[in-house]
Amino acid sequence: MIEVLRKIVQAVNDADDLAQALELIVHEVRAAMQTEVCTVYLRDRGSQRLVFRATEGLNKDKVGAFSLGIDEGLVGWVASRGEMLNLDDAMAHPSFQLVPGLGEESFNTFMGAPIIHQRDLLGVLVVQQSDTRRFSDAEEAFLITISAQLAAIIAHAEVTGAALAMDAPSQEVSRIQGVAGSPGVGIGQAVFVSPTADLGAVPSRQAVDRRQEMRAFRSALARVRDDIEVVAENLREELSAEDHALFGVYLSILDDSALGGEVAALIKSGEWAQGALSQVMIKHIRHFERMEHSYLRERAVDVRDLGTRVLTYLQDDAETRSDWPEHTILVAEEITASALGEIPRERLVGVVSLRGSANSHAAIVARGMGVPAVMGAADLPYNRLGDRTLVVDGYSGRIYVNPSQQVLERFQALMDQDLALTEELAGLRGELCQTLDGKRIPLWVNTGIIEDLVGAIEQGAEGVGLYRTEVGFLLRDRFPSEEEQRQLYREQLETFAPAPVTMRTLDIGGDKSLPYFPIQEDNPFLGWRGIRVTLDHPEIFLAQVRAMLKANEGLGNLRILLPMISAVEEVDESFALIRRCHEEVLAEGYEQPLPPVGVMIEVPSAVWLTGALANRVDFLSVGSNDLTQYLLAVDRNNARVAELYHGLHPAVLGALQQVVDAAHLEGCSVSICGEMAGDPRAVPLLLAMGFDQLSMSAINLPRVKKVINSLTMADANELLAELVGVHSSHAVIRLAENLIERKGLGRYVRLNRDNR
Length: 756
Ligand code: PEP
Ligand code: MG
Known about the structure:
Layout: H1 2-13, H2 18-33, E1 37-43, E2 50-56, E3 67-68, H3 73-81, E4 85-87, E5 109-117, E6 120-129, H4 137-164, E7 175-177, E8 179-182, E9 185-192, H5 210-234, H6 241-252, H7 259-268, H8 273-289, H9 294-317, E10 328-332, H10 337-342, E11 348-353, H11 361-369, E12 373-375, E13 389-393, E14 398-401, H12 405-426, E15 443-447, H13 450-458, E16 464-468, H14 470-474, H15 482-496, E17 501-504, H16 531-536, H17 538-551, E18 558-562, H18 568-587, E19 597-601, H19 604-608, H20 610-616, E20 619-622, H21 624-632, H22 650-665, E21 669-672, H23 683-689, E22 693-696, H24 701-709, H25 713-722, H26 729-742, H27 746-749
Parallel strand pairs: 9-10, 10-11, 11-12, 15-16, 15-22, 16-17, 17-18, 18-19, 19-20, 20-21, 21-22
Antiparallel strand pairs: 1-2, 1-6, 2-3, 4-5, 5-6, 7-14, 8-12, 9-13, 13-14
Helix pairs in contact: 1-2, 1-4, 2-4, 5-7, 5-9, 7-8, 8-9, 15-17, 17-18, 23-25
Magnesium ion binds next to helix 21.
């Protein structure tokens, strides 16, 4: 069954559009189940009716021309209840309804399964036959399995097909939903980037100069041939003549009489070399993958390998892109910090990542840069976008492909409003951050890239609560030397001196993997992360701490922060190494006291150990991004569970209060540096809990200051008191938003973000 399923899913995945995908489904399912009829009904979003969209065995003339109400007939019964129905005598069922002209009179055995994607009913998959027998349990299970697998493919095909249609019938369908990653709106041209050669990720594009494209293709081909001939030569001794001859066969795939000729023909017809190569290769890879014989099926791997080799040379030869559109929207399967750094900042107006979620590090970097971002946009047909216009709505997490004039105007107006608001808030820069009744609360920033520094100072930050040192490591192709690190850290410390700068030691692992130090794990967020890596590699830790101490010479504003602490031993071991570094730099002639050292509270065990940790260190900082992920068991990087990720979950709030109380009992100061600190709805609660500083992305700082400066501590305490006995995140959010609205602060917070 797995093999049949694999084949059907593969075939449907390869379809060019939804209509073709549905045709394939009915054809393949009917054959696999050996029934007489297989039909797909899809729910029309506008009319809410179930439209007869594809059939094998009934009257095809009715396809698209006939529909049922959502609870009409047996199909409606399945749709409205979201349940399977298996009948050996369909006519006897009270919901049975004969539709003249469909040709189903003689098929009295009926089985229907709902097609549901992410709780949303997409349609119904039906099989019918004339002999009176009940479909078996195994057949039921097969239909349910296939409809569950096809749901995601149908949903994807529905969205991408509609989004790409230039004459999209309504705004609804050219809209793709992802996860809000960084606030703001960007309108610009999509540019897809891929870190490694990927045949599936090359957009179709017209060649600017066909001859040049042909030359590039020929040269890439010649280099791949040379490479393979070298390998073949090296293996001559070790392989039998027969095996060796396989290299010849392998190479001949690229000949002009084979795939090479097809690519050349496409280039001649106007496609650019990379596009032509990828289209031809993918067509043949699919062809091989569909073959029955396993030996032939495996040849798909050879074709893919050859294609990827040629593409790598083509991409290497293409000059590094210097012609970024004036308004570039960067699209990538997974946005990396280096991709963000490649584009001139003034041209980058938006970011779209197919993977990741709101608290992925790429989203945090985008927020740091003040670039609107949508994450987890898995349905975006990225390889068919070309250079189309996109609107990126970083408030609601939506992307509009080929936006109509009306949509463009709506978002342009929103951008104008944002600009006016930014200018208005800029007036707060010189003001102290304090509540109306005089409670001071220092606002700090989180930094990582150089752009953060500029933004932070402009926004009037009073210090750096979290400098993510790993960003400097991610942008290189090897570990930075101690001296390179010293210079980097010196820049941060000097920019903010005498204000404090909290430097976190290297926090890699999870969704942050260094290209030159890959960590492959099944469960990376529970694996080798943060302090666990650097304690296992003291040479990395020691070099980093020495660089920090040296950078601090003559300034004295450094604070060192340890990430991912889950046990006191990790703190003790880290302290021993830090003291050793301190002695070493003193011996080298530097003069400075040991800087304050703190730990992050971002793992549940650390919440319960707060007292013991506070006893050992100078300060604590809560990493609510990870703490939320670990307390709620929700991967912060997974868009599929983004709806479950709530910093304002009562369990998270309870843990935060526990941390503040336990820290203060030991006389230890405690800040919060997760993204929650920049959420104006959470801010009154954090104030009332007693956090000593809030540290956030610079972009959120003005709004947070506006909120704090418009409230009294009594307002904040009242809100916290209202939460006693409230057990749902949604209820907490409602109460927090009510306060914001009551104080007339809604427009600074964009609470109405989903109503646009
Ligand atoms: C956190 O986990 O809240 C945090 C600030 O660290 P990071 O987002 O870098 O994991
Ligand atoms: Mg963290």
